[in-house]
Amino acid sequence: MGAGEAAERLVREEGTRVLATLIRVTGDIDLAQDAVQDAVVRALERWPRDGVPPNPRAWLTVTAKRRAIDLLRRESGRTGKEVQATMSLDVEPEPAEVVRDDLLRLMFTCCHPALSPETRVALALRTLGGLSTADIARALLVPEATMAKRLTRAKQKILRARIPYRVPGAEELPARLAGVAATIYLIYNEGYTAGPGADLLRVALSEEAIRLARRLAELMPDEAAALGLLALLSLHDARRPARLDAEGRVVPLADQDRSLWDAARIREGVTLAGAALRRAPRRPDAYAVQAAIAACHALAPSYADTDWDAVVSWYDVLLTVHDTPVTRLNRAAAVAERDGPRAALALVEAIDGLDGYPWWHASRAELLHRLGRPEPAAEALHQAIATGLNEPLAEHLRRRLDDPAD
Protein backbone atom coordinates (compact mmCIF):
# COMPACT_ATOMS: atom_id res chain seq x y z
CA MET A 1 0.00 0.00 0.00
CA GLY A 2 1.43 3.38 -1.03
CA ALA A 3 1.66 6.48 1.16
CA GLY A 4 -1.35 8.06 -0.53
CA GLU A 5 -3.52 4.98 -0.06
CA ALA A 6 -2.44 4.64 3.57
CA ALA A 7 -3.35 8.27 4.20
CA GLU A 8 -6.77 7.86 2.61
CA ARG A 9 -7.46 4.75 4.70
CA LEU A 10 -6.52 6.48 7.95
CA VAL A 11 -8.63 9.52 7.10
CA ARG A 12 -11.65 7.30 6.45
CA GLU A 13 -11.14 5.37 9.67
CA GLU A 14 -10.59 8.38 11.92
CA GLY A 15 -12.84 10.97 10.27
CA THR A 16 -16.09 9.93 11.93
CA ARG A 17 -14.58 10.00 15.43
CA VAL A 18 -13.12 13.44 14.79
CA LEU A 19 -16.48 14.67 13.47
CA ALA A 20 -18.24 13.39 16.60
CA THR A 21 -15.80 15.33 18.79
CA LEU A 22 -16.23 18.52 16.76
CA ILE A 23 -20.01 18.31 16.94
CA ARG A 24 -19.83 17.90 20.71
CA VAL A 25 -17.57 20.94 21.02
CA THR A 26 -19.38 23.25 18.59
CA GLY A 27 -22.96 22.03 18.86
CA ASP A 28 -23.30 22.69 15.12
CA ILE A 29 -23.32 19.75 12.69
CA ASP A 30 -22.76 21.85 9.57
CA LEU A 31 -19.87 23.80 11.12
CA ALA A 32 -18.25 20.60 12.33
CA GLN A 33 -18.60 18.94 8.94
CA ASP A 34 -17.03 21.94 7.19
CA ALA A 35 -14.12 22.00 9.64
CA VAL A 36 -13.46 18.26 9.42
CA GLN A 37 -13.67 18.34 5.63
CA ASP A 38 -10.99 21.02 5.57
CA ALA A 39 -8.82 18.94 7.90
CA VAL A 40 -9.27 15.91 5.66
CA VAL A 41 -8.21 17.88 2.58
CA ARG A 42 -5.09 19.11 4.36
CA ALA A 43 -4.26 15.59 5.55
CA LEU A 44 -4.54 14.17 2.06
CA GLU A 45 -2.26 16.93 0.79
CA ARG A 46 0.40 16.65 3.48
CA TRP A 47 0.53 13.07 4.73
CA PRO A 48 1.57 11.42 1.45
CA ARG A 49 4.37 14.00 1.18
CA ASP A 50 5.47 14.41 4.82
CA GLY A 51 4.42 11.06 6.27
CA VAL A 52 1.51 10.08 8.49
CA PRO A 53 1.80 11.67 11.96
CA PRO A 54 2.26 9.38 15.00
CA ASN A 55 -1.32 10.10 16.16
CA PRO A 56 -3.47 10.69 13.06
CA ARG A 57 -6.69 11.25 15.01
CA ALA A 58 -5.09 13.90 17.21
CA TRP A 59 -3.68 15.67 14.12
CA LEU A 60 -7.09 15.70 12.43
CA THR A 61 -8.84 16.82 15.61
CA VAL A 62 -6.49 19.75 16.26
CA THR A 63 -6.57 20.84 12.60
CA ALA A 64 -10.37 20.65 12.48
CA LYS A 65 -10.72 22.59 15.74
CA ARG A 66 -8.48 25.37 14.43
CA ARG A 67 -10.52 25.54 11.24
CA ALA A 68 -13.73 25.71 13.28
CA ILE A 69 -12.29 28.62 15.26
CA ASP A 70 -11.50 30.44 12.01
CA LEU A 71 -14.99 29.84 10.67
CA LEU A 72 -16.64 31.05 13.88
CA ARG A 73 -14.54 34.22 14.01
CA ARG A 74 -15.32 35.09 10.40
CA GLU A 75 -19.06 34.85 10.85
CA SER A 76 -21.06 37.76 12.22
CA GLY A 77 -23.93 37.76 14.66
CA ARG A 78 -22.63 35.00 16.87
CA THR A 79 -24.32 34.59 20.27
CA GLY A 80 -22.51 34.64 23.56
CA LYS A 81 -22.87 30.89 23.82
CA GLU A 82 -21.20 30.41 20.45
CA VAL A 83 -18.33 32.68 21.44
CA GLN A 84 -17.90 30.55 24.55
CA ALA A 85 -17.82 27.47 22.33
CA THR A 86 -15.07 29.10 20.31
CA MET A 87 -12.94 29.52 23.41
CA SER A 88 -13.48 25.86 24.37
CA LEU A 89 -12.09 24.67 21.07
CA ASP A 90 -8.48 25.45 21.94
CA VAL A 91 -7.86 22.26 23.95
CA GLU A 92 -5.98 19.04 23.42
CA PRO A 93 -7.79 16.10 21.78
CA GLU A 94 -9.72 13.77 24.06
CA PRO A 95 -8.39 10.25 24.77
CA ALA A 96 -9.76 7.38 22.74
CA GLU A 97 -12.32 6.28 25.35
CA VAL A 98 -13.92 9.74 25.39
CA VAL A 99 -13.97 9.82 21.59
CA ARG A 100 -15.91 6.56 21.56
CA ASP A 101 -18.40 8.17 23.92
CA ASP A 102 -18.59 11.10 21.51
CA LEU A 103 -19.80 8.71 18.81
CA LEU A 104 -22.43 7.32 21.14
CA ARG A 105 -23.55 10.82 22.11
CA LEU A 106 -23.80 11.76 18.45
CA MET A 107 -25.92 8.71 17.75
CA PHE A 108 -28.36 9.53 20.53
CA THR A 109 -28.50 13.16 19.41
CA CYS A 110 -29.39 12.08 15.89
CA CYS A 111 -32.05 9.73 17.29
CA HIS A 112 -33.76 12.31 19.53
CA PRO A 113 -37.56 11.79 19.84
CA ALA A 114 -38.15 15.34 18.57
CA LEU A 115 -37.10 14.11 15.12
CA SER A 116 -39.26 11.78 13.06
CA PRO A 117 -38.10 8.12 13.00
CA GLU A 118 -37.07 8.18 9.34
CA THR A 119 -35.18 11.46 9.88
CA ARG A 120 -33.29 10.08 12.87
CA VAL A 121 -31.93 7.19 10.86
CA ALA A 122 -31.06 9.34 7.85
CA LEU A 123 -29.20 11.95 9.91
CA ALA A 124 -27.21 9.35 11.79
CA LEU A 125 -26.26 7.58 8.57
CA ARG A 126 -25.04 10.89 7.14
CA THR A 127 -22.97 11.92 10.16
CA LEU A 128 -21.95 8.61 11.73
CA GLY A 129 -21.78 6.44 8.66
CA GLY A 130 -20.32 9.09 6.40
CA LEU A 131 -22.75 8.01 3.68
CA SER A 132 -23.68 10.30 0.82
CA THR A 133 -27.23 11.56 0.42
CA ALA A 134 -27.59 9.25 -2.58
CA ASP A 135 -26.40 6.25 -0.53
CA ILE A 136 -28.91 7.00 2.23
CA ALA A 137 -31.77 7.52 -0.21
CA ARG A 138 -30.99 4.17 -1.80
CA ALA A 139 -30.77 2.40 1.57
CA LEU A 140 -34.11 3.84 2.72
CA LEU A 141 -35.81 3.49 -0.69
CA VAL A 142 -36.74 7.17 -1.11
CA PRO A 143 -35.87 9.75 -3.83
CA GLU A 144 -32.54 11.53 -3.37
CA ALA A 145 -34.15 15.01 -3.47
CA THR A 146 -36.53 14.01 -0.67
CA MET A 147 -33.65 12.78 1.43
CA ALA A 148 -31.64 15.98 0.90
CA LYS A 149 -34.54 18.09 2.20
CA ARG A 150 -35.07 15.75 5.13
CA LEU A 151 -31.42 16.03 6.21
CA THR A 152 -31.41 19.83 5.96
CA ARG A 153 -34.57 20.13 8.06
CA ALA A 154 -33.16 17.75 10.68
CA LYS A 155 -29.97 19.74 11.22
CA GLN A 156 -31.94 22.99 11.40
CA LYS A 157 -34.28 21.50 13.99
CA ILE A 158 -31.39 20.34 16.18
CA LEU A 159 -30.01 23.90 16.20
CA ARG A 160 -33.35 25.63 16.77
CA ALA A 161 -34.53 23.25 19.47
CA ARG A 162 -31.10 23.17 21.13
CA ILE A 163 -31.25 19.39 21.29
CA PRO A 164 -28.54 18.40 23.79
CA TYR A 165 -25.48 16.48 22.66
CA ARG A 166 -25.32 13.77 25.31
CA VAL A 167 -26.09 10.17 26.13
CA PRO A 168 -29.56 10.40 27.70
CA GLY A 169 -30.44 9.14 31.18
CA ALA A 170 -31.50 5.55 31.70
CA GLU A 171 -35.17 6.51 31.66
CA GLU A 172 -34.81 8.05 28.19
CA LEU A 173 -32.91 5.22 26.53
CA PRO A 174 -35.80 2.92 25.53
CA ALA A 175 -37.51 5.67 23.52
CA ARG A 176 -34.39 6.05 21.37
CA LEU A 177 -33.30 2.43 21.11
CA ALA A 178 -35.25 1.65 17.94
CA GLY A 179 -33.70 4.55 16.02
CA VAL A 180 -30.20 3.84 17.28
CA ALA A 181 -30.43 0.14 16.46
CA ALA A 182 -31.85 0.82 12.99
CA THR A 183 -29.03 3.24 12.29
CA ILE A 184 -26.32 0.82 13.34
CA TYR A 185 -27.94 -1.91 11.25
CA LEU A 186 -28.04 0.25 8.13
CA ILE A 187 -24.46 1.41 8.64
CA TYR A 188 -23.43 -2.24 8.82
CA ASN A 189 -25.42 -3.08 5.69
CA GLU A 190 -23.68 -0.32 3.75
CA GLY A 191 -20.36 -1.84 4.77
CA TYR A 192 -21.47 -5.42 4.13
CA THR A 193 -22.79 -4.64 0.64
CA ALA A 194 -21.49 -1.25 -0.48
CA GLY A 195 -23.35 1.07 -2.83
CA PRO A 196 -22.26 1.82 -6.40
CA GLY A 197 -18.49 1.77 -6.80
CA ALA A 198 -15.54 -0.55 -7.16
CA ASP A 199 -15.85 -2.41 -3.85
CA LEU A 200 -18.25 -5.04 -2.58
CA LEU A 201 -17.26 -4.39 1.03
CA ARG A 202 -16.49 -1.34 3.13
CA VAL A 203 -14.83 -3.25 5.96
CA ALA A 204 -14.09 -0.24 8.16
CA LEU A 205 -17.77 0.74 8.07
CA SER A 206 -18.92 -2.76 9.03
CA GLU A 207 -16.41 -2.94 11.85
CA GLU A 208 -17.49 0.48 13.13
CA ALA A 209 -21.13 -0.68 13.14
CA ILE A 210 -20.21 -3.81 15.10
CA ARG A 211 -18.24 -1.72 17.59
CA LEU A 212 -21.21 0.61 18.06
CA ALA A 213 -23.56 -2.36 18.43
CA ARG A 214 -21.28 -3.75 21.13
CA ARG A 215 -21.28 -0.41 22.94
CA LEU A 216 -25.07 -0.33 22.73
CA ALA A 217 -25.34 -3.86 24.17
CA GLU A 218 -23.02 -2.84 27.01
CA LEU A 219 -25.16 0.22 27.69
CA MET A 220 -28.48 -1.71 27.55
CA PRO A 221 -27.63 -5.33 28.41
CA ASP A 222 -31.22 -6.30 29.24
CA GLU A 223 -32.74 -5.07 25.97
CA ALA A 224 -33.56 -7.77 23.42
CA ALA A 225 -33.02 -5.35 20.53
CA ALA A 226 -29.48 -4.45 21.62
CA LEU A 227 -28.47 -8.10 22.09
CA GLY A 228 -30.27 -9.25 18.96
CA LEU A 229 -28.63 -6.58 16.83
CA LEU A 230 -25.12 -7.52 18.00
CA ALA A 231 -25.96 -11.20 17.42
CA LEU A 232 -27.16 -10.51 13.89
CA LEU A 233 -24.13 -8.45 12.91
CA SER A 234 -21.73 -10.98 14.42
CA LEU A 235 -23.31 -13.87 12.50
CA HIS A 236 -23.35 -11.99 9.21
CA ASP A 237 -19.80 -10.76 9.63
CA ALA A 238 -18.58 -14.28 10.40
CA ARG A 239 -19.14 -15.08 6.70
CA ARG A 240 -17.14 -12.12 5.40
CA PRO A 241 -13.85 -14.03 4.71
CA ALA A 242 -15.66 -16.32 2.25
CA ARG A 243 -17.69 -13.76 0.31
CA LEU A 244 -15.01 -13.04 -2.31
CA ASP A 245 -12.74 -15.48 -4.10
CA ALA A 246 -9.02 -14.99 -4.77
CA GLU A 247 -9.82 -12.92 -7.87
CA GLY A 248 -12.21 -10.64 -5.95
CA ARG A 249 -15.34 -12.16 -7.44
CA VAL A 250 -18.56 -12.56 -5.45
CA VAL A 251 -19.13 -16.04 -4.00
CA PRO A 252 -22.84 -16.79 -3.33
CA LEU A 253 -23.79 -18.27 0.04
CA ALA A 254 -24.43 -21.68 -1.52
CA ASP A 255 -20.86 -21.86 -2.84
CA GLN A 256 -18.92 -20.39 0.08
CA ASP A 257 -16.12 -22.32 1.78
CA ARG A 258 -17.57 -22.60 5.27
CA SER A 259 -14.20 -23.48 6.75
CA LEU A 260 -13.32 -19.80 6.21
CA TRP A 261 -16.18 -18.59 8.37
CA ASP A 262 -15.20 -17.09 11.74
CA ALA A 263 -16.14 -19.76 14.27
CA ALA A 264 -15.63 -17.47 17.27
CA ARG A 265 -18.05 -14.87 15.91
CA ILE A 266 -20.58 -17.60 15.13
CA ARG A 267 -20.42 -18.86 18.72
CA GLU A 268 -20.83 -15.34 20.05
CA GLY A 269 -23.73 -14.63 17.69
CA VAL A 270 -25.60 -17.84 18.54
CA THR A 271 -25.21 -17.21 22.27
CA LEU A 272 -26.40 -13.61 21.96
CA ALA A 273 -29.35 -14.62 19.76
CA GLY A 274 -30.51 -17.09 22.40
CA ALA A 275 -30.21 -14.45 25.11
CA ALA A 276 -32.14 -11.92 23.02
CA LEU A 277 -34.96 -14.38 22.31
CA ARG A 278 -35.24 -15.20 26.02
CA ARG A 279 -35.56 -11.48 26.86
CA ALA A 280 -38.80 -11.18 24.85
CA PRO A 281 -40.55 -14.58 24.73
CA ARG A 282 -44.06 -13.28 23.95
CA ARG A 283 -43.22 -10.77 21.22
CA PRO A 284 -39.73 -11.50 19.92
CA ASP A 285 -37.47 -8.70 18.79
CA ALA A 286 -37.02 -8.40 15.01
CA TYR A 287 -33.21 -8.35 15.22
CA ALA A 288 -33.23 -11.44 17.43
CA VAL A 289 -35.42 -13.30 14.95
CA GLN A 290 -33.16 -12.30 12.06
CA ALA A 291 -30.22 -13.51 14.13
CA ALA A 292 -31.99 -16.85 14.57
CA ILE A 293 -32.32 -17.10 10.79
CA ALA A 294 -28.62 -16.26 10.38
CA ALA A 295 -27.80 -18.91 12.99
CA CYS A 296 -29.63 -21.55 10.91
CA HIS A 297 -27.24 -20.79 8.05
CA ALA A 298 -24.17 -20.49 10.28
CA LEU A 299 -24.72 -23.83 12.01
CA ALA A 300 -25.52 -25.85 8.87
CA PRO A 301 -22.51 -27.92 7.79
CA SER A 302 -23.33 -27.19 4.14
CA TYR A 303 -25.88 -25.28 2.09
CA ALA A 304 -27.62 -28.53 1.18
CA ASP A 305 -27.93 -29.41 4.88
CA THR A 306 -29.64 -26.11 5.81
CA ASP A 307 -32.86 -26.64 7.77
CA TRP A 308 -35.14 -24.77 5.39
CA ASP A 309 -38.25 -25.64 7.41
CA ALA A 310 -36.71 -23.81 10.36
CA VAL A 311 -35.65 -20.86 8.19
CA VAL A 312 -39.14 -20.43 6.71
CA SER A 313 -40.70 -20.80 10.17
CA TRP A 314 -38.46 -18.06 11.56
CA TYR A 315 -39.43 -15.82 8.64
CA ASP A 316 -43.07 -16.45 9.51
CA VAL A 317 -42.30 -15.24 13.03
CA LEU A 318 -40.43 -12.23 11.64
CA LEU A 319 -43.43 -11.21 9.56
CA THR A 320 -45.49 -10.89 12.75
CA VAL A 321 -43.14 -8.19 14.08
CA HIS A 322 -41.47 -6.76 10.96
CA ASP A 323 -43.66 -7.19 7.90
CA THR A 324 -41.80 -5.42 5.08
CA PRO A 325 -41.43 -6.10 1.35
CA VAL A 326 -37.76 -7.06 1.85
CA THR A 327 -38.69 -9.53 4.60
CA ARG A 328 -41.22 -11.13 2.26
CA LEU A 329 -38.62 -11.31 -0.50
CA ASN A 330 -36.12 -13.03 1.77
CA ARG A 331 -38.77 -15.47 2.94
CA ALA A 332 -39.57 -16.28 -0.70
CA ALA A 333 -35.90 -17.18 -1.25
CA ALA A 334 -36.13 -19.70 1.58
CA VAL A 335 -39.42 -21.06 0.20
CA ALA A 336 -37.65 -21.63 -3.13
CA GLU A 337 -35.20 -23.96 -1.41
CA ARG A 338 -37.93 -25.79 0.51
CA ASP A 339 -40.85 -25.89 -1.92
CA GLY A 340 -39.27 -25.14 -5.30
CA PRO A 341 -39.08 -22.17 -7.67
CA ARG A 342 -42.72 -22.11 -8.83
CA ALA A 343 -44.11 -21.51 -5.35
CA ALA A 344 -41.42 -18.91 -4.64
CA LEU A 345 -41.96 -17.00 -7.90
CA ALA A 346 -45.62 -16.53 -7.08
CA LEU A 347 -44.61 -15.02 -3.75
CA VAL A 348 -41.97 -12.74 -5.30
CA GLU A 349 -44.30 -11.41 -7.99
CA ALA A 350 -46.95 -10.62 -5.38
CA ILE A 351 -44.62 -8.22 -3.54
CA ASP A 352 -45.22 -4.52 -4.22
CA GLY A 353 -42.84 -1.59 -3.76
CA LEU A 354 -39.52 -3.12 -4.81
CA ASP A 355 -39.26 -2.01 -8.44
CA GLY A 356 -36.06 -0.10 -7.64
CA TYR A 357 -34.58 -2.86 -5.46
CA PRO A 358 -31.99 -4.92 -7.37
CA TRP A 359 -32.52 -8.13 -5.42
CA TRP A 360 -36.21 -8.30 -6.29
CA HIS A 361 -35.24 -8.40 -9.96
CA ALA A 362 -32.32 -10.74 -9.31
CA SER A 363 -34.54 -13.10 -7.32
CA ARG A 364 -37.07 -13.19 -10.16
CA ALA A 365 -34.25 -13.89 -12.60
CA GLU A 366 -32.96 -16.84 -10.58
CA LEU A 367 -36.41 -18.36 -10.18
CA LEU A 368 -37.27 -17.87 -13.86
CA HIS A 369 -33.96 -19.49 -14.79
CA ARG A 370 -34.75 -22.50 -12.60
CA LEU A 371 -38.13 -22.79 -14.30
CA GLY A 372 -36.51 -22.92 -17.72
CA ARG A 373 -37.57 -19.44 -18.88
CA PRO A 374 -34.26 -17.91 -20.06
CA GLU A 375 -35.59 -14.83 -21.88
CA PRO A 376 -37.58 -13.27 -19.00
CA ALA A 377 -34.76 -14.33 -16.66
CA ALA A 378 -32.23 -12.36 -18.73
CA GLU A 379 -34.56 -9.35 -18.82
CA ALA A 380 -34.86 -9.43 -15.03
CA LEU A 381 -31.07 -9.57 -14.69
CA HIS A 382 -30.71 -6.52 -16.93
CA GLN A 383 -33.21 -4.69 -14.71
CA ALA A 384 -31.28 -5.66 -11.58
CA ILE A 385 -27.99 -4.36 -13.02
CA ALA A 386 -29.67 -1.13 -14.15
CA THR A 387 -30.76 -0.25 -10.59
CA GLY A 388 -27.17 0.62 -9.63
CA LEU A 389 -24.91 -1.91 -7.91
CA ASN A 390 -21.31 -1.98 -6.86
CA GLU A 391 -19.03 -3.39 -9.54
CA PRO A 392 -18.42 -6.86 -8.03
CA LEU A 393 -22.16 -7.52 -7.73
CA ALA A 394 -22.88 -6.12 -11.19
CA GLU A 395 -20.11 -8.30 -12.61
CA HIS A 396 -21.57 -11.34 -10.84
CA LEU A 397 -24.94 -10.72 -12.48
CA ARG A 398 -23.31 -10.11 -15.86
CA ARG A 399 -21.62 -13.51 -15.56
CA ARG A 400 -25.04 -15.01 -14.92
CA LEU A 401 -26.23 -13.39 -18.14
CA ASP A 402 -23.29 -14.75 -20.11
CA ASP A 403 -23.42 -18.20 -18.55
CA PRO A 404 -26.69 -18.98 -16.76
CA ALA A 405 -25.19 -22.20 -15.43
CA ASP A 406 -22.41 -20.29 -13.62
Structure overview:
The chain has 406 residues and is mostly helical. The chain has a domain at 1-94. The protein is 70% helix and 0% strand. The chain has helices at residues 3-26, 29-50, 56-74, 80-88, 96-110, 117-127, 133-140, 144-161, 173-192, 203-219, 224-237, 263-279, 286-299, 308-321, 325-339, 341-349, 358-370, 374-386, 391-402. α18 packs antiparallel against α19. The model has no long low-confidence stretch (mean pLDDT 83).
Residue fraction in strands: under 5%
Separation, N- and C-terminal Cα atoms: 33 Å
Give the proportion of residues in helices: 55-70%
What is the number of E strands? 0
* Broad shape: globular
Sequence of secondary-structure elements? HHHHHHHHHHHHHHHHHHH
Radius of gyration: 23 Å
- Separate helix tally: 19
Attribute tags:
19 helices; 0% strand; 406 residues; mainly alpha
Question: What is the compact description of this entry?
Answer:
The chain contains 19 helices and no strands.
Note the topology:
Blueprint: H1 3-26, H2 29-50, H3 56-74, H4 80-88, H5 96-110, H6 117-127, H7 133-140, H8 144-161, H9 173-192, H10 203-219, H11 224-237, H12 263-279, H13 286-299, H14 308-321, H15 325-339, H16 341-349, H17 358-370, H18 374-386, H19 391-402
Helix pairs in contact: 1-2, 1-3, 1-5, 2-3, 3-4, 6-7, 6-8, 6-9, 7-8, 9-10, 9-11, 10-11, 11-12, 11-13, 12-13, 13-14, 14-15, 15-16, 15-17, 16-17, 17-18, 18-19
